[in-house]
Amino acid sequence: MTKQSNWAGNYEYEAVRIHHPKTVEQVQELVRQSRKIRALGTCHSFNSIADSTEDLVSLDHFDPLISLDKENLTVTVAGGIRYGELSGYLHQQGFALHNLASLPHISVAGACATATHGSGDNHGNLATAVSAMELVIADGTVIVVSRKQDDLFQGMVVGLGGFGIVTKLTLNIQPTFNLSQDVYENLSLFELENHFDEITSSAYSTSLFTDWKGEAFNQVWLKRRIAKGTILKAEPELFGAALATRNLHPIANISAENCTEQMGVSGPWHERLPHFRMDHTPSSGEELQSEYFVPRQHAYQALLKISQLRERIALPLLISEIRTVAADDLWMSPCYKQDCVAIHFTWIKNEPVVRNLLPIIEQGLAPFHVCPHWGKLFTMSPTHLMSHYHKLQDFRELLRQHDPHGKFRNPFLDTYIFGTN
After folding, report:
1. Would you list the domain boundaries of the chain?
2. Strand 174-175 versus strand 205-210 pairing type
3. Contacts of 376 (CB under 8 A, 6+ apart)
4. What number of CA atoms fall less than 13 Å from residue 196's CA on the CB side?
């Protein structure tokens, strides 16, 4: 069979077979028959986390189940549904999720399993919205775990694919709301020393973009929540940064056509929280990505360190984004019990060059207790990575309980969770 690559084209899956079941019963049968099996989402990971040595299961042929519980403010969805598909439906019904990632094209199950996130001082990663999950576990049976009923639920949500095939998730929702989006240009890095909290808390969701070619952030994107029918006038300056007078793409020389609406125009939450529109492909995947989390109290010093490396970083870099993520109680989340700042890099598609740079970045950020995004490129040693997860031993034991023979384990989990490679 023809091997499948991830979205970026930098990783080719080793799995012998990729299955596209249409029902839970078919998933159960696949799991029973397979020795090694994993779930495959929308292929937006940049490393081997989603791979299997034998079988992969994609839920892209599942019925896109959406079951709304208005009384309890929850929605239950099939694991393979994408955020863009779910968000439009929720808004039509008068509801919203608490946050979205920059891309609405990713699957709900895959994003939650890897602690993928949006931005906002008061908003946890996307997995914090999960209140229950349905999984097909190693013996082919279906189980349901929930935050209300299961003491170990916090260990399973950011599960890294190790507990089984997630066929349904129940998410907490809230009444729909509107946001406006304004962009400011050329914010000095040094303004963050005394004003970081003011800047990031000035909107529902805040993103800072830079190409690290100078000591400034090229753009600051503020997504502010507003009452329907209200016009919110943006200030002409933000700590010296000037309000943009046109729609902008984070990368200066690219058209803003694929970006969500800016210039303070009010719109539904799901059309403002992502940076890119669901009905457009933001890029062809001709890029690589890495991302690192540091505790929020180290934000300014960590960014200063990156700035000191800018002569090494700037040439292969397309853009870097800085976001804040609130603390959570999910064992394998980088934000477990701590507010974090996420430092994201989008690189040109030249993996040897990028992999030579990552150890330099990781070494520079090491004093700030850095850890990487699970689904993106990093070179950090397993020992160093594992030292940052206080619940790692409990997580290992939980994996062994649910999958005693390692059916859902792969080389990635063996290396970075069990330390056996």
Report:
1. 66-175
2. unpaired
3. 45, 46, 47, 289, 290, 291
4. 19
Helices 299-308, 351-365: axis angle to 10 degrees equals 130
User: Phi-psi bin for 282: left (phi > 0), alpha (psi -120 to 50), beta?
Assistant: alpha
Return the SS3 of 278. Answer: coil
Instruction: Supply the mean pLDDT for the chain.
Output: 94
DSSP secondary structure string for all residues of 168-197: EEEEE-EE--EEEEEEEEEEEGGGHHHHHH
Q: Which fold has domain 66-175?
A: 3.30.465
Q: Is the pLDDT reported for residue 3 higher than 90?
A: no
* 328 residue type, one letter: D
Query: Which of the pair, 149 or 93, is modelled with greater confidence?
Result: 93
Does the structure show a pLDDT above 70 at 421? no
In the sheet with 17-19, reading across from the earlier edge strand, the strands are: 17-19, 55-58, 37-40
* pLDDT, greater one: 19 or 3: 19
- Reduced to 3 states (helix: H, G, I; strand: E, B; else coil), residue 188 is strand
Tokens standing for 85? 């598909």
Contacts of residue 228, Cβ cutoff 8 Å, sequence gap at least 6: 178, 266
Task: Please report, to the nearest 10 degrees, the dihedral formed by the alpha carbons of residues 204, 328, 374, 320 taken in order.
Answer: 30
**% the chain with pLDDT above 90:** 87
Query: Which pLDDT tens digit goes with each residue over 290-340?
Result: 999 999 999 999 999 999 999 999 999 999 999 999 999 999 999 999 999
Count, residues in the chain: 421
pLDDT of 44 over the 80 cut? yes
